[in-house]
Fold these 4 entries.
Entry 1:
Amino acid sequence: MNESQNPSALRSKQEITDALLKLMEQYPYSEISVKQIVLESGLVRKTFYRNYSSKDDVLNAYINSAIREYVGGLLEHPEDPMGVIFSFCEKNRKLLELLNRNRLLYLLLLRLNEEIPRLSKNVDMSRNPFAHLMEGMEPDYLIAFNIGAIWNVIFKWVERGMEEPLDYVRSTLEEYLRRMSQRTES
């Protein structure tokens, strides 16, 4: 992907991304072609390839952007990772639904598994409520466990059609974590 910050390039990237997302609402991702994205965006093929190498590149750039925003939220509010997670889910409901519909939620999990361990190595985790659960233990495994556990619950919510209120899912997870915390303190 071309990282140009030129306003025209940014506008083109947004139009291409919007076109892909609109097409994902109508067609399976596997059936969407660059030609369809170009036609939907109203741009020319050359503009597409000036900014992206493939439709996967477009989707990955969109996911990466969402993850960067998520990580920024964690940096801003290290004491409330659950709040950041559920704000991310609320803001990105459509992305979650489209990824689920196309059996691509794993792409989000892959990016989380890359970014969160990197983040935990560069940030003071003392204000993170999970830190005391990991004290004295191998952090890489526990971070992977936390990511997998929390995000698999969220993915289950997405698979069920996101019908339960997010507050219900959040309170369920927080209660589980509270119980786990009590067990480790005993």
Entry 2:
Amino acid sequence: MYLSSISIELGKGVLKHNNRNFIAENVDKDRTKNNVEYKNIPLEEAYHILFDEALERYNNKQKRADRKINNYLEHIQKGKQEKPFYEIIVQVGNRDDMGIGTPNEAVAKRILEDYVRRFEERNPNLFVFNAVLHMDEATPHLHIDFIPYTTRSTRGLDTRVSMKKALEEQGFVGSGRSDTETMAWLQSEKEALSYAMQWQGVEWENQGNDRQHLSVLEYKKEQRTKELAELEGKVEELKETADNLEKTIETVTVLSTDEEFEKEYTLPEPQKLESAKSYKNRIEGLFEKLKAFVKKAFVALLETRNENHRLITKVNNLQIDNADLRESNQRYQLKNDDLKKQLRDYKIVRKVLGKEVVDRVIEQAKTKPKLERIRNYEQDFFR
């Protein structure tokens, strides 16, 4: 089996370069026609597809106009917490063993095409809006540009941009700067690329060390997932409590600082020699306004309580969903371990018996059930 290296790293995300709106010095213009474009959705359109409904829900809840968001992409671009999108650059080998003009050029292209076709299947929280295979530079490589998003946000938009949350929902949990969600995810993507290589008869050159490191990351991921599950419920409850307190404080503040309160709800002093009946008639209108004010405050209190109950129910449902996801994650982990063991056994057999013998046995195994069905059919027909 041929050995080759793997490279998957975060890129700068220069879309005009990726789509060849301008040509850099290291690009061979004559081979640009060989590039393969898998996706090319404008970033603005991608944001409309992902976030328009969530943005409408968010704006409808805002009572103050200054809290509404007119354009979510511009909102993210102006902020400092999240990037509008991310990019990874994916490459197998180098210009010497997998480069343009080498015997393995077509092999490298098939590997990268297989990898990119399965990217969104592996990463349901990463929306790919631009993806291209470059065949006009020294070595075939992919540029994959994506928007990471979460659909479980309890602050801001319920569906919003977040690399950290997107990867957490996919099962990647970091423990610090030396072990982040992104590091674990990139390592997992290298493993996925190595599987695509194996189908083309190419083995990851640093497979041993990297796979050992991956197993450590997977163990850490499982441990962090357990810790996260225990704390997540408490964290969400605290967030919701803080949100509800903020809304209640805002409501009370608005009501108590209403100019009507001081101007209209202060009882006037009775005039000299004024009869009780006259004074009663004079303040009767004030009491009607005061009752309306109390009713307004009572309705606001009920709305706050109902919102609090709704949020508590939502937290409980999220906790149930998290438990289901953890159980599914464990099942997939067991299945993944079993597949890895089968792959190791297959590679051992392939090395001992040789590629040709193993491939011939596999083909015979595939055709045997078909031949048996034909023989059974012939026996029944001529019986």
Entry 3:
Amino acid sequence: MKTKEKKAKRTHKQRFALLLRILLVIILLIGIIAGAVAIINMICVKSNRGFIESLDAVSYDMQLEPIDKNGYTTFVTDDELKIMQLTDVHLGGGFMCAKKDKMAINAVAAMVTQEKPDLVIVTGDIAYPVPFQAGTFNNKSGAALMAELMEKLGVYWCPVFGNHDTEAYSYYSRKQISKFYSQDKFKYCLFESGDDSVDGYGNYVVNVENTSGKITQSLFMMDSHSYTDGDIFGAAWKYDCIHQSQIDWYENELNSLTQINDGATPKSLAFFHIPLLEFRDAWYEYMDNGYKDTDNVKVIYGKTGESGKIVYSSDKNEGFFDRMLELGSTQGIFCGHDHANNFSLDYKGIRLTYGYSVDYLAYVGIKDFGLQRGCTMIGVKPDGSFECRGENYYQDKYKPVMEKEAVELEHEYNEEKLVNQTHPAE
């Protein structure tokens, strides 16, 4: 009996030792693979950094330099301020998307170089750290590529957070990416983390002022957050919205700006990523009226290209649009998020505009289509009014360093082949 017990104990020990060896081998293999992927990612990012370094700075006859006045970054001019809105650049920063990242960098550089804007505002989803498409969880890589690109071009810019910039599984939080953008080495980045008592990161204001000291326009950058109702990975497409604390902050800022402005409430524009529910309300009203304008809705330009809900706003509404109507300052809202939508319409007196997206990566197959890709140009007039227009990247006036890719420009957005796999088809 004792002999059998000893043999049994030896067998158990041998099995345990074998399992331990297998486990150690698996851990070693995972470490080797992870290390190899990290090295490959570093090489790919370095290659795209090299491409950025090869670009020329934008040539201005006389570039506007913002100043700090009354605690706000301020552009002083008696002329029109030229703003370029970019959105959903989706720089993955990994080995699986290095070519697509280069294409996005190439497109952004070409449009900025041609248009020579005084300010670029990027309304979210700069980074796209989705590992099965990008090959990395490192969301700082995409943010760094964009920041380094704008430094090389020498153009002032304002980042805004989107839902993909800081995923639950990505390496860096919004707070950490906020600190990254706020570094002194990024001279052209005007990002501010914002008031700690207000929800989100990157709620801040940039003013436009004339030489007489009057604020002619206030530009509100805001964090529309990511997901809600426990949908931490965004798998159920339960998007968040502008929170009550931000609405209160917006009103308080307007009150402060009114005092600075000798009692005159400045006109304003708002920039954030996820559209308000009113974007959907407006489009549905227009659609239900046989795609004709109504008393509330007047479509200025553009199309929809998303399937299902068409407008993927939050289903929540904390009253931001109504507060805007009440206060009477904000003339226009600019967002992104829905890459195939690029319409601009007037709803109850406020202009609601989707920026043309840049995305080559996130929507499956979108690199092969071109009607949705481009930028949105906004002209802020000296009298406080503004105009905007969408510009398609594939126009001859945009001349990138790397030859433009061949894309399909004749398709209708809502054809089955462009139905994306980021939003559900309902």
Entry 4:
Amino acid sequence: MKQIDIYDFDKTIIPYDSGTKFAFYCLTRYPWCFPIAPIVGIFALLGITGVISWKAFKKICFSFMPFIPRRKAIKGFWDRHEKDIYPWFKERPREALVISASPDFLLEEIQKRIGFEGLICTRHNPKTGAIIGENCARQEKVNRFYEEIEQSEYRVIDVYSDSLKNDRPIFSLATNKCYHIVDGKRNEFIYSQRFSEDS
């Protein structure tokens, strides 16, 4: 049985939300997309306040994608920001499965560059930017894990995430240790059912 560790991506192995950072990168680098920004901002506010779901927000947050040179933009973004990956992730002890709510079209490029073994993230139409299926967050991370990983062949050892609240479901998969990431620092703790209920 192969041993793997699970990692969240945003604010876990990189210090910010990569999807948001990419959106700002594109809106500033390709100014003809800027008129879309107020619409995205309004939908983001509605998402933060709970008026709409994050899935609804993600239907429009990358709506600028048809107006940019997609491959060039993604390459340029990671050329600038690949250095922001925390060094400890590059020295990981086991094979890594990254499970993230960020878009697949963005994370597939960094996976190729730094060579982590597995990737599960939110599916988007790369041409339109629209979300396909569910947002890969909270319980959906575990749902996707069970859909895509053969349980008899893998054992999850450690789990890493910046969010104790949102990533309780993936923390529960750890058979050894959990790590809460705060400002790039790994804070070890043992998952328990009480933690799940109290968080």
